[in-house]
Inactive polyglycylase TTLL10 isoform X3
Amino acid sequence: MGSSIEEGLRPELSRLDQDADLLEEEEAARLPVTSFEGLFLEGNKQPNPGQGPFFYIGGTNGASIISSYCESKGWQRTQDSRCEDYKLKWCEIKCRDNYCSFREGQQLLFQLPNNKLLTTKIGLLSALREHARTLSKARLLPSTQAKVLKMEEFFPETYRLDIRDERQAFFTLFDETQIWICKPTASNQGKGIFLIRSHEEVAALQAKTQSIEDDPIYRKMPFRAPQARVVQRYVQNPLLLDGKKFDVRSYLLIACAVPYMVFFGHGYARLTLSLYDPHSSDLSGHLTNQFMQKKSPLYMLLKESTVWSMEHLNRYINDKFRKTKGLPRDWVFTTFTKRMQQIMAHCFLAVKSKLECKLGYFDLIGCDFLIDENFKVLSWEDEVWLLEMNSNPALHTNCEVLKEVIPGVVMETLDLALETCQKSLHSQKMMPLLSQRHFVLLYNGETTDLWPRMGGSRHLTRLPPSALSSVRAADRTGARKPVPSRDAPTSGFRKSRQPDSSGGSGAESEPSLCSGSPVNSRDTAGESSLGPPEEEREEEHRSASHRGS
């Protein structure tokens, strides 16, 4: 009798449960989205004068823009780097204590803890190699038909000097017909970079690395800083603007990490002051960043010519190359932009399952691209090169183009970080985003990933019944749990999502640039620490003078 009654009630109970879910979604939808920062700050609805909400800026890179933005919202700046009662903390140099005291869902913190997976030369190289191996295995599956990028199509041939076999491979293949460039893994502003052209220079490098490796002190070092370098094939025939070398700085914005909301943003073109000569030993003719160009006595007089807007670059290429190269009109904003977006999305997918992610983490990464002089409409795939990705990109505004570009990039970054955080916190749909103006969505994790809801009684996106068992299994094996109550700050680093047991990063198709969401991209959960504290401290120490690159 009791069993039959229970069976009879099941349809009704199921309907009531569905109705409750719908009411919860309707209630979340009714939350005002025109003032998203107000919802994010609901813990301090009526702050007393002089009592916050507080924001902290560590360093001078972009400080005036960030400060003006926060003050326009009524926030107050604190100079106390140990202040834990903040709404936004933007630091040039990462500090472990910032992540340990971070209150998930209540605060915004600039820079993902382990963004070095993308922003160091060795980190990016290793991630792309591993992703390439995973994609290679996936291509053997009959169901995998999607066209994906190959690493060699956009990333110059590179070898690590901290690995003996790779070092020897480079020393063996070197010949004087090709120039190579040697870079420290975690430096910026052109520091520690030199070119390798001759067998004598290779022999000197070989002797130096060997002597360091033979040093007994070096062998005991937990992080072998002197060897943490890469050598990369130098692109000797770059496209030139009026005879000068240039590259393009664009932005990868991770506005939200739970779920991932990743964007592309246009930046500007950076030119050298001197004419390009591949045989010159003057690095200022090879490296385009402002730090190198400022060394010229002519910099103050000609600095406006070293930075072009993307519109200026587009007009120049239309005028100079459209007919001779057979390019479509506005190649910069069509073909070239699409290629940069594809490369950025590929790099993000290479590390997505390994990034440390909590609600409130966000990051702005500077990506530098070089165009080969052989570019043409039918073979542009092999003519756009990703040189590197940079954490804490330069946000100075010392020329007219930068005054036009940088404030907009910073303000939209903060707007998107605020809006996506509050929408995740209150279980609202991400799209459309009221604060999205110029950034282009590359990846929408809301529609593809398993992720914990921060608000309401539901902690996962709605899944079909067949998927529930796998989610429960993931919970038992280390998947991310819903965060504690808002009154209980989290401590320590959240375990990052890691690749599957095979060591791959998860086979994922490249994201559609129209929908912004790749298909069939699900992360498997695992555990990993951030890495040895000694390594982190050593790396941060080397970049202590970082003012962006």
